[in-house]
Write a structure and sequence with these properties.
The protein has 197 residues and is mainly beta. Helix content is 14%, strand content 43%. The protein contains one helix and 15 strands; from the N terminus they run H-E-E-E-E-E-E-E-E-E-E-E-E-E-E-E. Strand 12 and strand 13 form a beta hairpin. The longest helix has 27 residues. The radius of gyration is 32 Å and the shape is elongated.
Length: 197
């Protein structure tokens, strides 16, 4: 009687190519998990900034609050004319304009917010003439103009920032002024937040 044929021994391990692919995949997963964990540990928590914007009569206005701490901070308003060649009027322009033309760039908190210092503007004043007006008009150079104003909260509650402006061009004339455009804010123990304006 013939003896049974020996059964070939099967290596329980995976083929070398499969083992290599598996090892590389495991290493990649470990590296990804390690980087993700480091990123989460090192990333500082970020508080949401109070910010809003609107567009009216040829100008986009972006409002934000910076450095808010212990009920004091800085209101930042950036005015950007929609079209090239248009200028914002100076904050020092008389309220009624010059010869009835133009309105000053204005940022005024009311309600539970108050002014806590001097307003500053990031651009110098220059003079231009516009069609139909004999006198020169004080304006800022064309493009965005940023106004900053220190503010403080007198108490938690509702507040508004009243925005005023107009823009003009030496060749195109002036846009319709915006006066006392109200933007709502709420002051509270956790800071400021803009509401619907």
């Amino acid at each position: 009687m013939a003896s049974p044929r020996p059964v070939p021994h099967r290596d329980p391990r995976l083929p070398r190519a499969a083992r290599t692919r598996l090892a590389r995949a495991a290493a990649a997963l470990l590296a990804t998990a390690s980087l993700t964990g480091c990123g989460q540990e090192s990333a500082p928590p970020h508080a949401a900034a109070a910010e809003t914007e609107f567009n009216e009569n040829g100008v986009t206005v972006r409002l934000s609050v910076a450095d808010w701490k212990s009920d004091v901070g800085t209101l930042v308003a950036t005015f950007t004319p929609d079209e090239a060649g248009f200028h914002l009027y100076s904050t020092a322009l008389p309220a009624e304009g010059v010869e009835g033309v133009g309105r000053p760039t204005a940022v005024r908190p009311v309600g539970s917010l108050a002014t806590a210092g001097e307003m500053t503007v990031d651009k110098p004043v220059k003079s231009i003439t516009v069609p139909g007006v004999r006198a020169a008009l004080p304006v800022y150079p064309g493009g965005p103009v940023t106004v900053t104003l220190p503010i403080r909260a007198s108490a938690p509650g509702e507040a508004k920032v009243l925005i005023g402006y107009a823009s003009c061009s030496a060749t195109e004339g002036c846009t319709i002024p915006v006066a006392d455009r109200a933007v709502s804010l709420r002051t509270g123990e956790h800071g400021l937040s803009f509401g619907t304006s």
